[in-house]
């Protein structure tokens, strides 16, 4: 059992299914009190009932105060997991870009804005950001998703470097393919790039808890992502050439 989670008050957004539901179940199994958030109220309530948690449905950007009340006055751990897998190129509609930015980045900013005053006063708090390997690398066929996930990673990194000496712990989870509805929504690009090495949502939860025990910021449920990330930094043109070959392969299959 993870001692740092026992009896903690936890919020998981986008927890009606997929990674969020797996995180909610794991936190509950480890003895935490869990708020399950999702835009789909029925899904949130179903997961909450399963784990003896509390359903707080609604927009992830606006639920911190409601969740705090539901948990008895404070939040110890906040999992910013809700996300949009927005595909398209630079030509994607302005609203698609705006929605991706709002959900994948600004929801995290708004949550941190609401949580940090109390956490800094107490000298402790834990912010878990579900990013994606796309936030470290990129994803073919999904400019809005790739760009905003880079933003989500950058914000998590900034939180960690700014507040770690004041007791704030931050984790950025960056999986590749995970067998969820989001993978299905990725279509042919997801089938080509992500599906061959896809893992289960529970594997992501396991990776997070390993990272919590070890005090790690960067959580990589697919360890190979560390090699890709290193290659991207060390030889960006070679990495871009390799990614462009994948892009061409995807285009040829359309």
Description:
It is a single chain. The chain has 254 residues and is α/β, with parallel strands linked by helices. The chain has one domain (9-225): 3-Layer(aba) Sandwich (Rossmann fold), CATH 3.40.50.720. The chain is 53% helix and 11% strand. The chain has helices at residues 18-29, 41-51, 64-70, 94-122, 143-163, 181-185, 187-193, 201-214, 224-234, 236-253, and strands at 9-12, 33-36, 54-55, 77-80, 125-130, 168-173, 218-219. A seven-stranded parallel β-sheet has the order 3-2-1-4-5-6-7, sandwiched between helices. α1 links the parallel β1 and β2. α1 runs parallel beside α2 and α4 (94-122) runs parallel beside α5 (143-163). The protein is globular and about 55 Å long. This is SDR family oxidoreductase.
Residues in β-strands, percent = 5-15%
The CATH architecture: 3-Layer(aba) Sandwich
Helix fraction, binned, reads 40-55%
Tally of DSSP helical segments: 10
Look at the structure and give the CATH class.
Alpha Beta
* Low-pLDDT ranges: none
Q: Major sheet, described briefly? A: 7 strands, parallel
Q: Specify the overall morphology.
A: globular
Order of helices and strands: EHEHEHEHEHEHHHEHH
- CATH overall fold name: Rossmann fold
Q: List the strand order in the largest sheet.
A: 3-2-1-4-5-6-7
Number of domain units: 1
Q: Please tell me how large the radius of gyration is.
A: 18 Å
The number of distinct β-strands equals 7
Mean pLDDT: 94
Look at the helices and sheets and give the structural class: alpha/beta
* Span of the ends, CA to CA: 48 Å
CATH superfamily: NAD(P)-binding Rossmann-like Domain
Enzyme class: oxidoreductase
InterPro entries: NAD(P)-bd_dom_sf, Sc_DH/Rdtase_CS, SDR_fam
Protein name: SDR family oxidoreductase
Family: Belongs to the short-chain dehydrogenases/reductases (SDR) family.
